[in-house]
Amino acid sequence: MGAEVAYHYRHPALPDVDLLRARFVTHRFNRHTHDGYVFGVIEAGVEEFELGTGVERAGTGSVVVVNPGVVHGGHAGTPEGWAYRVLYPPVDVVTDVAADLGAPPGTPAFPDPVLDDPAAADMLRAVHRAGEKGDALAASTLLRTALAGLLTRHARVRGHRGSAAMPPAVREARDILHANLVDPPSLDRLAEAVGTRPFPLLRAFRDTFGLPPHAYLNQVRVRAARALLDEGLAPADVAARTGFADQAHLTRHFKRTLGVPPGAYRSARGIGRVGARGPREAG
Fold first, then answer.
1. pLDDT (tens digit, 9 = 90+) per residue, 5-45?
2. 3-state DSSP call for residue 141?
3. How many CB atoms within 10 Å of residue 172?
4. Helix (H, G, I), strand (E, B) or coil at 64
5. What is the pTM of this model?
6. Residue 159: its pLDDT value, please?
7. Is 144 in a helix, a strand, or coil?
8. Residues linked to residue 38 through DSSP beta bridges, in sequence order
9. At what angle do helices 235-242 and 262-271 cross, to 10 degrees?
10. Cα separation of the two ends of the chain
11. Contact yes or no for 171/163 (Cβ under 8 A)
């Protein structure tokens, strides 16, 4: 399918909605989460992605759905890799459409991670193409139409599991990590600070978030890095402010989470779209 290439850009009418168009062969996404939804359409090849239930395979024409907060990774399912278009709407965008459809209160959830829905695939492609052209009216109309179709045919409503459901030690440990991106404590010191032992904390933390504390912290760092890049800071400054050892360390984690290096992400925030070739390109 050719060389690896990725374009990350903003929806022209809804700046909180991200769009990714990419072709990957050797690139692998680390296990990570998103605050919002992931809707992708596979345009060529096969993607494999890990969920808590196992490994899923999505071939050409399939629609991939990942619910908010679900830990997942991703890699090529064949030697030729895969090409896809991905839409990342925040929870409030999806719940607004669900409310307009008359859905009961709650957060929509999609029980099936891989959908055979040609109409949804066509609509997701249309959203992307309108977004690439900068057509705000068409892109926003098509986005809501695509979400309405997905919600009507595939969604269920679930209750929200808030932080109150967390074990107190896990909640305290999470708050400590959020407050100490640059100089986090060791697992032993973290456990001591929340009044428990290291291994029980590790197990409870992983059961709650799907990731051990160090991997969870890197996800928090990447999100903080995104916010600073959105403010216009250079990747080297962002790395220092978010606890990464250097720019290369930031780039590695950033690209394995978002698919593009931080330099490309930052440029896209300024000009709408930028290409990033190769999984090892520095930001």
1. 999 988 999 888 999 999 999 999 999 999 999 999 999 99
2. helix
3. 17
4. strand
5. 0.86
6. 55
7. helix
8. 66
9. 120
10. 24
11. yes
